[in-house]
């Protein structure tokens, strides 16, 4: 799965703040996040124990979700398979612990896998549950998510300082068989 030492490119604010870390360096990171996730029909293959031992810090990064934020999120290097194309990429472990919302803002699980991962104490525990496994984007649910100001990237609040929510589709995921390597 992991091919060579060349790290895939990061984009956005994470590209500015992310730094390599060890598997144990994921301990204590527990930020739900929306970026570097999965598409419907896409398969994401996570590193095996042997790959973690071989590549170590080349497989994990941690960084601020925004340059101005103190919230740290964790990334793992994965193989993505989409429409028969395989590529090395980053996957944000925080995407598996997030929830969707109902119109009134009440949180709701996206699917069973998200609900189970949300019970993990941190990104290290999430990753422990993914070592050597694969997940697939299985479909979508229609729900709601916080509305963001496109220019400031801050959450939009109403006149009573309550978060505003807008319709959003969330990709559902489940474990799948690890595809044969080419």
Q: What does this molecule look like?
A:
With 182 residues, the protein is of the alpha+beta class. The protein has one domain. Helices cover 13% and strands 32% of the residues. The chain contains four helices and nine strands. The strands form two sheets. Strands 1, 2, 3, 4, 5, 8 and 9 form a seven-stranded antiparallel β-sheet that branches. It starts with 12 loop residues before the first helix and ends in a 6-residue tail after the last strand.
What are the SSEs and their pairings?
Layout: H1 13-17, E1 19-21, E2 43-45, H2 49-55, E3 60-64, E4 72-82, E5 85-92, E6 100-101, E7 107-108, H3 112-117, H4 123-128, E8 134-146, E9 165-176
Antiparallel strand pairs: 1-3, 2-4, 2-8, 3-4, 4-5, 6-7, 8-9
């Amino acid at each position: 799965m992991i091919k060579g030492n060349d790290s895939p490119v990061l984009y956005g604010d994470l590209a500015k703040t992310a730094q390599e870390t060890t598997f144990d360096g994921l301990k204590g990171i527990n930020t739900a996040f929306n970026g570097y996730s999965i598409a419907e029909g896409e398969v994401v293959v996570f590193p095996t124990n042997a790959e973690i031992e071989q590549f170590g810090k080349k497989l994990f990064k941690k960084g601020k979700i925004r340059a101005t934020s103190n919230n740290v999120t964790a990334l793992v290097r994965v193989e993505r398979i989409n429409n028969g194309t395989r590529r090395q990429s980053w996957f944000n472990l925080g995407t598996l612990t997030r929830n969707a919302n109902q119109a009134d803002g009440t949180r709701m699980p996206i699917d069973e896998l998200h609900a189970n991962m949300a019970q993990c104490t941190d990104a290290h525990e999430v990753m422990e549950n993914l070592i050597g496994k694969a997940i697939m984007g299985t479909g979508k649910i229609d729900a709601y998510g916080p509305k963001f100001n496109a220019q400031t990237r801050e959450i939009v609040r109403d006149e009573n300082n309550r978060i505003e929510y807008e319709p959003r589709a969330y990709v559902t995921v489940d474990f799948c068989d690890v595809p044969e390597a080419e």
